[in-house]
């Protein structure tokens, strides 16, 4: 297959990946916005997001095989094995006609920008989950701790009776009065 045909196929692959990334980004943002809801149906794992992630993995595998075919079709120095050649969009653009190269560059830039946005959203979601887990652990720790009003005083103090909620007789023992 000619280099131009492979480049068009690569561009189509990048554009379809961009659409998948755009849909995934919208779904992740929607999940983050719905996070304040305590309904279990909203917080349950999303089959649609899992399907999108699987489609992105499949597209990445297909693109990896396409890059190998592009490496074989690209001009290279004598003695260089196609498997050793690193195929990048900038290298492809330099050997393609200007219009095809510009379309390929635009598709790659769009896919890169969307991938960055998805990474940011995933990172934000992970941080949200970690902070929520920490808040829940702190809240459970406070609920499990003994009530501070019923705890024994920690030392001799004139205000021990008020702090500990103890009666007059026990307060005399704490503050040193017999």
Keywords:
single chain; 178 residues; mainly alpha; elongated
Mean of the pLDDT scores?
A: 79
In DSSP terms (H or I, runs of 4 or more residues), the helix count works out at 7
Number-wise, the strands total: 0
What is the helix content? over 70%
Give a summary of the structure in a few sentences.
This protein is mainly alpha-helical. The protein has seven helices and no strands. The chain has two domains: 3-144; 147-178, no CATH class.
Topology, please?
Elements: H1 3-33, H2 40-43, H3 47-73, H4 89-95, H5 98-144, H6 160-164, H7 168-174
Describe the structure.
The protein is mainly alpha-helical and 178 residues long. It folds into two domains: 3-144; 147-178, no CATH class. It contains seven helices and no strands. It has helices spanning 3-33, 40-43, 47-73, 89-95, 98-144, 160-164, 168-174. Helix 1 (3-33) runs antiparallel to helix 3 and helix 1 (3-33) runs parallel beside helix 5. The longest helix is centred in the C-terminal third of the chain and has 47 residues, at 98-144. It is elongated and about 75 Å long. It starts with a helix and ends with a helix. Mean pLDDT is 79; it is low at 169-178.
């Amino acid at each position: 297959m000619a280099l131009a045909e492979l480049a068009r196929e690569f561009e189509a692959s990048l554009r379809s990946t961009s659409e998948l990334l755009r849909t995934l980004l919208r779904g992740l943002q929607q999940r983050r916005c719905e996070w304040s809801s305590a309904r279990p149906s909203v917080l349950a794992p999303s089959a649609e997001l899992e399907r999108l992630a699987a489609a992105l993995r499949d597209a990445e595998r297909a693109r990896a095989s396409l890059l190998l075919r592009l490496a074989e079709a690209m001009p290279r120095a004598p003695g260089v094995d196609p498997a050793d050649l690193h195929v990048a969009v900038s290298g492809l653009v330099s050997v393609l006609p200007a219009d095809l190269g510009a379309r390929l560059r635009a598709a790659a830039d769009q896919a890169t920008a969307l991938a960055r946005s998805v990474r940011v959203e995933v990172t934000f979601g992970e941080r949200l989950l970690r902070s929520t887990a920490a808040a829940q652990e702190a809240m459970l720790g406070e609920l499990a701790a003994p009530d501070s009003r019923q705890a024994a005083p920690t030392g001799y103090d004139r205000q021990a009776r008020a702090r500990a909620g103890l009666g007059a007789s026990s307060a005399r023992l704490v503050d040193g009065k017999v």
